[in-house]
Input
Amino acid sequence: MAEMIKFEVTGFELTIENSNIQKEKVKKELKNAMKNYMERVLLKAKALCPVKTGALRDSLNVGPYSDFEWYLRDGVSYGAHQEFGFTSKDESFHQHPFVQPAFLSTKPTIVKL
Output
């Protein structure tokens, strides 16, 4: 089963609830910004992903859990091993992070209302 790294955006619900103006516009813009950000992270993760057959890279995908919670996951059994490392039969350690660097190098979108 594929490992998932979950992150969420917090701290804006209070702002939306306390704002009488443009509540739906704020939600729509934040949803679009989140989708845009995650799609850019996905492209970066695919570019950084180790490739032998291309199965790991091709299986990477993103999608929403809810309006403001998204996932990035893979569809292979060894994606987490590449990201976090593994010890091979000869007892050497191998690691090729690609998800965390994708998040760290992708700047979030500033939403102007």
In short: The mean pLDDT is 84. The two ends are 40 Å apart (CA to CA). The chain has five helices and five strands.
